[in-house]
Backbone:
């Protein structure tokens, strides 16, 4: 039927005027092969489509029953390696590294805080946990690992100015000091506060020297006490005799007393 | 699955929040994230008078969230075995309940 229709329609333009009209009209309602509405398929075509539908292949054992296969580790891209190198550098170069929790702060506050810390030569570094964790687990700072959860920042410095850092952080309520590593010693928050309360190194040294020098000075004064006492007594005696000279001459007396000793 | 930062809590009936944890322990993750979410701009904007304090200790105590409400009620959440979302939804539901109560009270007083 479609073949005859094609043959009838293969004329130049309007099929119903020119071209030969077949004796039998196969098309009932006048709709063509390509229509704007959904046209029902011929029954034979419907049967063919139903038989040749796609069936997805099912595995014999459902994948849930098998053990999960380990995914291959992705290689680190260059950026991750660069960040890791930077973190390692930071841990090597600086004497004081403080770990703080960062809750979201308005931008100006961040800039102000950075400015105040810069004045004391303290740098602020934002770090990502997934980079820092592998670096730490391989270095000797394993005990800092549990600190790196949720958002953190690092305050790093070459000098250990704990007092100024604490003062700046007190003015910023959204940053909480968790712990620090000063001179390869891991300190908690309490430890950092105690460290800040310690006097300066020179003052501590001066105090130690003074305490150490106290005992020998006491010993030397004890040893000299006998002869000092004697000279004081003799001086007193001379003064008495000189005062008594105006009354009567008594010079040989002090010469005798000094001779007996 | 909800993201913890999408949960909105109205802090108006809250007077103060104290979050206590020991960062060297291993069960503090959810409490720290809770602290981070609470300090978000939008949640802080609902109540500027609410003071959020973080108490960092090193005595091995468990993580704790202590919320003081304006009408004297106190909510203590021990975060060792709770997730961030659970804590936020618990706090949010209590705040909403208090807000409704206050609205009803003000409606009763006005006419």
Residues:
């Amino acid at each position: 039927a479609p073949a005859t229709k094609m043959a009838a329609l293969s004329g130049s333009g309007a099929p119903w005027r020119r071209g030969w009209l077949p004796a039998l009209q196969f098309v009932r309602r006048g709709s063509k092969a390509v229509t704007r509405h959904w046209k029902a398929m011929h029954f034979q075509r419907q049967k063919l489509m139903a038989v040749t539908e796609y069936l997805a292949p099912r595995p014999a054992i459902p994948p849930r029953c098998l053990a999960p296969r380990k995914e291959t580790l992705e290689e680190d891209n260059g950026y991750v390696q660069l960040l890791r190198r930077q973190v390692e550098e930071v841990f090597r170069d600086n004497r004081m590294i403080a770990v703080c929790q960062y809750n979201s702060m308005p931008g100006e506050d961040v800039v102000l805080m950075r400015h105040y810390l810069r004045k004391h030569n303290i740098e602020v570094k934002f770090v990502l946990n997934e980079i820092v964790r592998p670096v730490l687990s391989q270095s000797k700072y394993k005990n800092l690992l549990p600190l790196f959860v949720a958002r953190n920042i690092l305050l790093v410095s070459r000098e250990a100015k704990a007092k100024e850092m604490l003062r700046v952080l007190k003015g910023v309520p959204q940053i909480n000091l968790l712990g620090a590593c000063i001179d390869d010693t891991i300190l908690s928050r309490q430890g950092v506060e105690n460290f800040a309360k310690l006097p300066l190194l020179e003052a501590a040294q001066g105090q130690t020297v003074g305490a150490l020098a106290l005992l020998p000075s006491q010993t030397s004064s004890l040893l000299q006490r006998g002869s000092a006492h004697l000279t004081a007594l003799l001086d007193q005696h001379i003064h008495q005799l000189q005062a008594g000279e105006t009354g009567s001459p008594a010079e040989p007396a002090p010469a005798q007393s000094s001779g007996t000793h | 699955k909800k993201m913890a930062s999408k949960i909105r809590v109205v802090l108006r009936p809250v007077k103060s929040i104290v979050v206590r944890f020991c960062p060297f322990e291993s069960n503090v993750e959810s409490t720290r994230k809770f602290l981070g979410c609470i300090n978000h701009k939008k949640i802080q904007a609902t109540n500027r008078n609410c003071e959020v304090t973080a108490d960092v200790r090193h005595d091995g105590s468990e993580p704790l969230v202590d919320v003081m409400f304006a009408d004297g009620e106190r909510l203590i959440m021990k975060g060792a075995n709770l997730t961030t979302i659970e804590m936020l939804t618990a706090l949010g539901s209590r705040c909403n309940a208090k807000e409704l109560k206050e609205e009803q009270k003000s409606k009763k007083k006005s006419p």
The beta strands of chain A are 96-102, 122-127, 152-157, 175-182, 185-188. The radius of gyration of chain A is 51 Å. Chain A touches chain B at residues 101-104, 106, 143, 146-147, 149-151, 173-174, 176-179, 188-191 (CB under 8 Å). Residues 253-261 of chain A have pLDDT under 50 and may be disordered.
